[in-house]
Structures are given as structure tokens and as C-alpha cells.
Amino acid sequence: MKKFSFKLKAQLIILTLILIIVESYTSPAQEVRWMRVGQLQSFFADYGAEPERDAIFTNNYFTWPTLYGDNQYLTRSKAFWIGCKNFFDPVENKQKSVKVVGAGPRYDPINQPLMVFPEPIKLFAKYTHPLVVVDDQIGTNNTLYDAPDEIDENLPCDRMIIVKFNTSMGVSVTKKILAFTQSNHDDYFIYDIVLKNTGIYNSQGAVYSQKLNDLWVYFNYRYSYAGVTSSGYGSTWGAFSSEWGRTAMYYDFGKGFGRESDIRGFYGFYSPSTERAGILRAQDWGCPNQLVDGLLGSATYTGVVTLFASNTANDWTNDDPDQPRTTAYIAVDNNPQGIMNSSVSQYDELFMGERYRVMTEGHLPQSHMESVGDDYVANWTSQHPDRDGGGGTAMGQGFGPYTLAPGDSIRIVFAEGANGISWEKCREVGAKWFAYFTGTGSPALTMPDGSPSTSYTDYTRAWVQTGKDSILQVLHNAVANYKAGYNIPQGPPAPSRFTVTSGGNKIHLSWADNAASAPHFNGYVIYRSRGNVKDYRTQYNKIFECTASSKVDEFDDVTAARGFNYYYYIQSKDDGTQNDVNPGIPLYSSPFLTITSVPAYLRKPPAPDVPVPPSSDSTVWKLMVNAETWNSALSYHKYDLVSYNGSIFIFIADSAVSSLLPSSAPMLWRLTKHVGAWQGGTAYNGGDVVSYMGNDFVTAFSISAGSGLELVRVVPNPYDIRGRFLQYGDQSQYDRIAFLGLPPIATLKIFTERGDLIWEKEHTSGSGDELWNSTTSSGQIIVSGIYILYVEKPDGSSVFRKFVVIR
After folding, report:
1. What does the DSSP assignment read for 51-118?
2. What predicted TM-score, i.e. pTM, was given to this entire model?
3. H-helix or E-strand containing 320?
4. Nearest Cα to 169, choosing from 436, 397, 404, 484?
5. What is the reported pLDDT for 684?
6. Are 807 and 719 in contact (CB under 8 A)?
7. What secondary structure, in 3-state letters, does 418-485 show?
8. How far apart are CA 394 and CA 330, in angstroms?
9. Cα-atom radius of gyration of the chain, to the nearest Å?
10. CB count in 10 Å sphere of residue 677
11. Rounded distance between C-alpha atoms, residue 498 and residue 590, angstroms
């Protein structure tokens, strides 16, 4: 008997290995599609869930508010399981007491392909993404993600992803994800899921027909609320464990759950972290940045609401108000049999039995939030180690039980959303918190209800917890949308084309006027950010607005400052009469349809194509003045003249304290010499002095003969990376050098001091400037040293400029 048992086990192991090899070979490549048109953005995988340790992405999804960065991550993992009892398994050709298959919460590259067999995933769009152009190039990276497989003008939403897959349990799944851009409905997704007993149990489409008894469908959500605050994402102020969902807190609601509500679902939020030491732990509402400005980086709530669940098989009309029947939270690490871990073998009945128990356990007497207590700082290891221990907690929802005969199907529809206090409010509240926390101020504290407060901790907590009302409003909006058959009021469409053109003294914006024909159209609004875009440090400011009566299709931004990058988005708006949530407030088109990710900036006009004679306001020639005696302790600036050992020297750098003798520092000083009257078409060297109109002028530049290239200069020179914030502003992302005074068309090349060509560009913009990001043509960041700029016009005339880089 033992020998027979050993042979049977060996055969089973061999069979399993064969199945793994076959399925891995025949399964299609994993694919995803993105939803990138609303305030809530995410990718979706072709196998039905987005788990941790995904083969393509890890945690980088489900972001809000995405206008302030693609790293506003809210989710660590998700799971989607299907289970039933008394199942004859055609994979192993045996009867099983229980079978559970699915994806997540961790990706299993070995077992998952044996259970889920995806079909091609597709993104459908109601309309094409607008054309966004910045300086004659595609101006937004959103088109890389919002790339529909098909255009369908009859969609009930703006974008729809359809995921289809078969499972080894014989259940085929069609999952539709709907996204909307209407201002009141762009912060949730609706999931419409149909499960059908087709009997298809492998990737080749083999069918085994049988009735499925006590079938349950289970969804698991592990939210993280970390975003920019977690050190795991490169931040400096949050707790690393918040990236895993260690700080997530949940509250489930619904009449059938014992917690009164007119809708059924749950919400979650960031709770104070046990890793935030000392007094900060008790004040950790929204994870304020205690190091810089108090910004609340995690003041976001997520939520899920059930919209429909079949009462019985094939019933797509009657909603079962008692669904979901399971709303229990569970520990993501410390759980029985490791059921939340990556090993998800469909051959292990004990393992599947534990999963089935979790799927079907019903409602707990207390929500996760209630069991922890009012301070929300969970005692992770002593209360419920199987529910809120280890790496944190996840929320589960189970729908069932159902009986599906061959050909039967059920339908489950729910919405998942995110919201909270606005990013602007996060700055305002956080700044006041920071003033009290650091003892640098005592600003007035006004609570959400308008009353004054003397406790900055209570003040911060109260504002963060208004996110509860925000997420419940989101979920109610989703319910209303579903009940209306997705027939919600629509604002005007976004402009089908948005063009941004950098100019010499302005940045010109123009757009298509297609929205003007929409009902209730009432103009446009334009927002601008300086320095960065879709980043938590970004601040968007409205710079233009018009109404239908003053409608235009272009605008000149004359308030842009030289040396900065600018990013824009334009929105169409209506007159406010169609708003289904806030009457009187205009509905706007989505900013993500027109937001630019390519910078625009002020350019200088091209240099004149002929030599420029000396003058008192010349940028190249300077009027000779009396020279003071050189002093090694003084700081000098470009064109300063000094007397040393009977000679006159001109300073040619931008600014420096020079203790070096002028006669021994040719990179800082030039010996002047008079070369006669100025003559157009004559070459001059730095330090040459000429007479013109009764005055003497000196130049620090080399000027080529007759070329009009004397205005070419490098700014700043020397370039010191430590001073870039002074050039381009606080928290600058720039590391760049400007080449100014260029002709409209020229070839630019940069050489090292020993003559190696490291960068070149054809300057064809017709402007007088180019910006260089201090990297070589092969993408390497340059080191400290002396470099040479070479500028050549189409006629062959050229000029060299030396400059210094200090890193």
C-alpha cells in the first residue's frame, strides 16, 4: 500500500509539472490597459485582478488625485476568487469537497496560469483623445496610456475596459470597467461582472459540463494610502509600512451588516502610524510632512459600494439586498494556512478549504475601525492577530451562495472610488499644523463646521475626517449614475486640439472650437503650472477664463517668466444648469484630456544677422570706465575692469571671488588692448578695445568676422549646480544651461576641453536661445570641467564660447 501511495504521489507531481509546462507555453502574454481620463486612474490586468508582485507592475496603480502625481498610490493588492463545493475536477479527474480559483492577492507565476486563462483585453473609447501639441511635437504622455483598441460612440461611459477569461473551475468571466469624465463622476470606476458556467476548464477550451453548487465570488482589497509619503517611494517623511497597507483602517456598512446605511459597502482610510514616534504618532492625521511644510500626504479615503447582485442564477433584474453576505477584514500576512500568500495551488484542498471559509464567513459583529478603537492606532499583535496583524489588514467582500447549472450566469456590479480633502486644502491645513508643531506660529484654526479651535491636533483630524463625507458622496454618485442607466448630464467636450507654442515674449495657446456647439456651452478655462506637472509639489493656477459671449480660440500667456518650464491644460465648461450634484456649478471637461507634459518656455528673439556696433546698452561691448586696483578679497562680475601691474584686465566670468592674479587666471581675466576703430566684419578677441562714436568699448567675447555671432553667450558661466535653485526656483527639477544670442538657424556642438564631441543639435526654431540639460547625446550627466560651445551658421561662419561646469 505504501509503495502504491508513493507511486501515485510521484505520478501526480509529474502530471503537475507537465501541466505547468503546457499551460506556460500556451498561455498568452500578460497584458494590461489603462484608465487615464479622470481624477482616478489605474491599470487593469487581463487575468481579472491587480495583485501584489504583479509580473508587469508593482503597486503603481489606483491613484487619486492624479493631477498631483502618478505616485498617489492607494492600493497594495487586490484579489478575485471563485469557489464552490462538491466539485468534480476534470484537471485531476477526481471529486473535491471544495475548489477555489482566481488571482491575487499576490501574483503567483507558477500556479495562477493554471487557473486563469485570459482572452485579449481591450480598451474602448467613446471618442479619440484630443491632439495636444507643444512646440511642434506631441505634448502629452497621456496618449501613451489612453490608446483605445476601438472607438464606440454608443458607449454609456467615456472609457470602458473589457476583460474576459476562463477558469479551471469551468466559470467564464466577463468584466467591464467603466470610467466617466463628468466632473461629479470622474473619481470612481464601475465594475460590471458576469460569471457564466461554460464548463471551459483549460487554455485549449476543453469543456466539462457540471452543476456548480454553493458558488461564491470574493473580492479582496488591500489599500495602502502611502502615495508620496512612504519612504518606499523615495519620500522622506512617511512610514515605510504604510506602503504595505499597515496603516489602513476599514469600516463596512449596510442594513444587512448590522450597521445602518441606505447603501451597502465599505470605506477605508489612513490611520495614525505606530512608526511615527513620540508626539507625532498622536498627531498623524493624514500623514503631515513634519520635515518641510506639514503637507498632508495621505488624507484620502477609498470606498466600494454594491450596485447590483443577482438574486438567483440568470436574474439580471432583481437585486439581492443581502449581498454581499461576507464583509470581513483579514490580516494580509498572519492568516490561517497562509491563504493570502502567493502559493495558490488548486491541487491543495486544505488550502482551498481555508480560502472558501474566508469567502463565506459572513459579517463580523464589529467593523475593523470599531474593533481598534477611537484613536485608530491598531494594536496589531494582541487583538486579532489573524485579522490585523503582521503587514496590516485587507477588506473582503463575498457574494453567494449561488447554484449554476451549465449555461447559467450571475451578475455583480459595484463601484470603487477615492476622494478626500483637496490637495490645496492639504497644503492649507498642513501649513497650520506645521506652524504649531514647530512652534513657528499660531494661526487661527477654523473647524469644518466654521467654529474656532484651540487644538491643532483636533483641527487637523477634523479636516482629514471630512474625507468620510467625500467618499460617501462619491459612492452615492455612483449609485445614482447606475440607477439612471448611466444617463447622467454631460458637460461640453474637451477641445479636440490644443496647441502650445513657445515664443520670445509670450507663450501662445490655441485650441479647436468644437465644444462651442455643445448644449449649454459657456466658454473655456485654462490652468498653468510652473516648474513641474502631475507632481505633489505642483500648484495649478487659473490664468484664463471666458464665457460663451466672449468666446475665443486663442490666448497669449504674457505673464510667463523667462527661465521656467510651464505646463497647461484647458477645459470646456457649461453654464451650471446641468449639474446633477451641485446645481449652479459648471460641469467641466476632464483636464487629463488636454494636460501637457512637454514644457513650454519663453524664448529669446534671434540675434541680428549682421555685426552689432558697440553701444552703451550692448550685451557684448561695454563702455570703458576707470579701472580700480585689483583686490584679491573682492568679488568680481562680468565686465569689471581692474588695474594690475600697469595693465588693465577685464573679468569674463559671471561672478566670483578671485584671489588669483589676473595675469595667471585666463579663465577669469583677459588683458585688454586697443585695436583701433570698430569695423563691421572684423574678428575680435576677448579683451579687445575699440573706438566708436567718440567712446572706447571693450568686449569679453570672441567675435567672428562679419557673422553677427557676437551675441552668442553661455548663461550662467560658470554653471554651479548648487545654485540652480537660485536660477529656476525652490525645489527646481532643472539642471540646465542656456545658450543665448543665437541666430535663427545654426548647428550647436559641445566639446570637452580636449576636443571630444559630447552633444550636438540643429537649432531650427527661429528663436535666439536653446536650453541644454547638462547631459551628453548618449544620456550621460556631464562632470565638472571646462567645455566649449561651437555655433555654426549655414554660411559657415562660426564662433566658440568656453564655459565652466561645477558639480
Report:
1. -BT-SS-SS---BSSGGG-TT-B-EEEEEEEEEEEEEEETTTTEEEEEEEEEE-SB--TTTGGGTEEE
2. 0.79
3. none
4. 404
5. 84
6. no
7. EEECCHHHHHHHHHHHHHHHHCCCCCCEECCCCCEECCHHHHHHHHHCCHHHHHHHHHHHHHHHHHCC
8. 5
9. 33
10. 10
11. 13
Cell 459597502, located at residue? 265
pLDDT above 90 coverage of the chain, percent: 60
Given this model, what pLDDT does residue 726 score? 54
CB 706 within 8 A of CB 680: yes
Task: Name the residue among 193, 329, 331 with its Cα closest to residue 268.
Answer: 329
725: Cβ contacts below 8 Å, ≥ 6 apart:
731, 732
> Lowest-pLDDT range, 57-61, 344-348, 450-454, 717-721?
57-61
Contacts of residue 547, Cβ cutoff 8 Å, sequence gap at least 6? 522, 523
- Residue recorded with cell 570672441: 702
CA angle 412, 476, 297 (to 5 degrees): 100
**Mean pLDDT, residues 449-467:** 96
Quote the CA–CA distance of 669 and 383 in Å, as a whole number: 75
Task: Kindly state the average pLDDT of the residues 538-556.
Answer: 95
- Cell numbers representing residue 807 in the block: 558639480
In the numeric block, which cell numbers belong to residue 57? 507592475
CB atoms within 10 A of CB 47: 29
d(CA 386, CA 338): 10
Place of cell 450634484: 581
Spatial separation of the C-alpha atoms in residues 42 and 44, rounded to whole Å: 7
Distance (Å, rounded) from C-alpha 659 to C-alpha 638?
Answer: 16
Q: Which three cell numbers stand for residue 773?
A: 540639460
627-637: buried (b, 16+ CB within 10 Å) or exposed (e) per residue? beebeeeeebe
